[in-house]
Structures are given as C-alpha cells and as structure tokens.
Amino acid sequence: FFLVGGYFSPVYRCLHIYSVLGDAETFENYYRKQRRKQARLVLQPQSNMHETVEDYRRYFSQIVGFFVVEDHILHATQGLITRAYTDELWNMALSKIIAVLRTHSVISYARFCLLFDLLFEIRDQYNETLLKKWAILFRDIFEADNYSPIPVSNEEEYKLVISKFPFQDPELDKHHFPKKLPMSQSVPQIYIQVKEFIYASLKFSESLHRSSTEIDDMLRKSTNLLLTRTLSSCLQNLIKKPHIGLTELVQIIINTTHLEQACKYLEDFITNITNISQETLHTARLYGLSTFKDARHAAEGEIYTKLNQKIDEFIQLADYDWTMIEPDGRASGYLMDLINFLRSTFQVFTHLPGKVAQTACMSACQHLSTSLMQMLLDSDLKQISMGAIQQFNLDVIQCELFASSEPVPGFHGETLQLAFIDLRQLLDLFMVWDWSTYLADYGQPGSKYLRVNPSTALALLEKMKDVNKMNHLFAQFRKNDRDKQKLIETVVRQLRGLANCIAQHP
Question: What distance lies between CA 424 and its chain's CA centroid?
C-alpha cells in the first residue's frame, strides 16, 4: 500500500483489524518491509540530478517527506514502528545520501556549489522553523508568569536563580533573607530559551563546515531575528492582552529592563561558542536593546491608557445634584475613591524608572482635570446652581491636595498642581464672582484668570443664567435677584463679544 498526501486512515484501519484478529505482528512486519522498499525508491536520485538545483531540492524534499510520515506514524500508533526502526532507516538513508552527493559532486563542481546554496536556503528554512517553535515557547512562558518579583528564601534559592540569569545588585545583596529579586519568573526562563535557540541554530550551522567567523555571523543574525521579530512580537501581543493590568505592565517594564541589560551576556555567550571576538571587524551586534526598549515604550503607553480608562470608570460614577442650593460640605464619594485608587497605584510605580512614574502621574492628573472640565461644560447639562459649583470646588480641592502630596517623587514645586490650574481659575472666577477683574484684565500676561477662556466662561455662565431664570419666576419681586440677573446678562453680552473677537482674530 502507499501513503498518499498524508492520508493515514488505511494504516490505522489495517492496524486495528490485525490487532483485533490478534495478528498485529504480521501487519507490523509487512508495513516495515514495504516502507524500506519505498525508502530505497525515494533515496534513488535521477541520473541528471546534478544539472539543476531544483532537482536537488526535489530530492531532499522527498526524503524529508518520507521521514515526516514515519515520525507521525511513530507518535500516532503504538508498536507499529519503533524509534530503533526509524534510526536504522535514517542511518541507511544517510549513507545513501552521502554516496549520492559524492558521486554528483565529482560530476560537476559548479553544481556542487549550487548545492551549498541550497543548503543555506534549507538553513534559512530551518531557522524559520526554530523561530516558530520558540514563539510558542515564549508565549507559554508569558502565560505562566505571575508577574511578581521572584521570592528567594535562602542562599541556595538565590544562587539557583542567578545561575540561570546574570543578575547583580550589590544593594540587594546587603539585605537578609527572605528577599525578592526585582524581575519575575519569566525573565530567567526567557534568557535560558534564547541560549537554547542559539545552541539549536549552531547545531545546523556547524554541519555546513563553514569558518568560525561565518558561523558567528550566522548565529548573531538568527539570534537577532529571534529577538527583534519573535520575542518582540510576543511581548507586544502580551502587553495588549485584556487581562494584563497596571501591576503586570509595571512588572513587564522592569522585566524588559533586566533582559536588556542581559544582552551583553548573550553577546559573550556567542563569542565563547565561536571564539570570535566582538571587536572583530564586521562582527554583527545583537539588537536586543531596541527590542526591549520598544516593548518598554509600548508598556508605558498602555499604562497611560489603562490609567485614563480607570479614571473614566470612576468619573462615570459621579452623581451631582446640579441644582443643589448648598454644598454637602465634603468631597464626593466617587472622587475620594478615585484619589485613593491613584494613590495606591502610584505606590506600585515606585519601582519604575523615575520619568515613567512622573509621566504617568502627570498624564493621570491632566486627564482627570480634563474630564472634570468636560463634565461642567457637557452640552447635555443645561443648568448649574452656585451650590453645585461650590460642591464641585470641594472635589477639585481634593484633586489639588492629592497633587501637592507628591504621589510620585521628582516633581518640583507646584508642577503637578498646574494640571488643575484651568479648573481652579474658572471656579475661583465664579465663586468670587469677580467679573470686573476678569473683563478688565483679560489678555494681560499678569491676569488673575489668564487660563479662563471667554467661551468656557460663557458656556458655564449660560447654565447658571438658566437656573437663575427659573428661580426668578418665584422671586421676581426681590431686588437682589433682579440685579443679579441683570449682571449676568451684562456679563454674558461682554463674554460673547470677547469670544466673537477671538474667533475673528485667532
């Protein structure tokens, strides 16, 4: 019988029938005998094979296909063939292949050179196969990681970790056990797998009988592909996974920092294998630095995005009574919960590089400020009372207190509080009702309300005007209310004039 197109059902059926009849050994002997005959046919080259590289390619493809089938049968059945049988078959094939190559190399040296080109092509395909295999290994490692610092209880555990990964921290060495290493478990595992990949790539390169310099170059190029394409892709996909939260992203940034630092040890590892110094002219360098920097930047961007998303979730819980007469006297519950969340989150950020933590903190405060401003100016919000403004002011005060508490170190003076400056000046203008100062000083560099745009002030004042109109229906005979309404209308006209002027002369 013949195995065509990988169709194995006839083999399975025959094996099952013979097994049921208690005569499986007969079928096993028959199968092996037939496959040996087929192997000899596959190994027999065409007489003119030396004429084109395509003939060599077809010849090797047939051999590979034959042994792929045998490998599948070996793993898919029990006892039909054995590892010893396939090894015997391979040794027979190997001696035949060597004889064929020697014969045809004598016929044409030029074609033999082309054959080496084919072997290099096969090497590239082999590397592609390795890259696919290691992509799966990397994904499995990332999936299994708990993204927490590695705990070590004693000296033995510590030495076990650093035997797998080149880690040095004199400050940490001063601490007593138990202690935690900054990276998570995936870091030493990834490092080990990169070295295993280098070994696997070396195994094929050595069989090409090239010079040490060429092998060194091959190893570095294939390792660069592993880092810049395979590992980089796995990291980028990991960072985008929905279940990866802020804590995990922080750990990923720490992990990539340590992997980046370990690249020089991978350079040394290849150098020790090939005995080719890194200072040798034209020696390729590993591009791991860019891989891990790109991953780190992606993780940082994801941190900023997730922080803003979390802020939005809290903002959606806001439930202001926009027509309240008097404020509650304390900040809103949703706002205090949000600030507590930010405070605890930024404590985790202490392990991040300083600028990353500062940027995340500033980004969060700016997003919070913008969200609060948008809430005030929402077109669906038609009326706002002074009591609501005062309540809103209590919440902004808490934001400012949070910013002034230096949630992450490194900010100078009131830098972080400036994120809320637009809100502060707008609220002060309305609470003090300081329109004469605003209108008189508008456009001056030293204006007390420099950050208040006339259009913004107008939009908010229009909402307050509507509330006052409603109240005016019930208090139209009170002189104070009538005067206030007239003042609002006067200020509205002046603000419209300023806004129109700005629109015409931006």
Answer: 37
Q: Which of 63-67, 232-236, 314-318, 499-503 has the lowest mean pLDDT?
A: 499-503
Band of pLDDT at residue 385, cut at 50, 70 and 90: very high
Name all contacts of 406-414 with Cβ < 8 Å and 24+ positions apart: 407/342, 407/343, 407/346, 407/361, 408/346, 408/349, 408/350, 408/357, 408/358, 408/360, 408/361, 409/350, 409/354, 409/357, 410/354, 410/355, 410/357, 410/358, 411/358, 411/361
Handedness of CA 418, 420, 423, 424 (dihedral sign): negative
Closest among 458, 324, 342, 464 to 398, alpha carbons compared: 342
**Residues in CB range of 405: below 8 A, 6 or more apart:** none
269-288 pLDDT per residue, tens: 988 888 876 665 445 577 77
Q: 3-class DSSP state for residue 450?
A: coil
What pLDDT shows up at residue 76?
84
3-state secondary structure 272-312: HHHCCCCCCCCCCCCCHHHHHHHHHHHHHHHHHHHHHHHHH
Residue 93, token pair as written in the block: 């094939």
How far is C-alpha 486 from the chain's CA centre? 58
Digit-coded pLDDT (tens) for 110-125? 455 555 555 666 677 7
pTM higher than the cut 0.85: no
Q: What residues contact 396, with CB distance under 8 A and at least 6 apart?
A: 372, 420, 423, 424, 427
Cα–Cα distance measured from residue 423 to residue 452, given in angstroms and rounded to the nearest whole number: 8
The 3-state secondary structure of 321-364 reads CCCCCCCCCCCCHHHHHHHHHHHHHHHHHHHCCHHHHHHHHHHH
Amino acid identity, position 380: D
386 token code pair? 């002074």
Contacts of 107 (CB under 8 A, 6+ apart): 50
- Torsion sign across C-alpha atoms 268, 271, 277, 278: negative
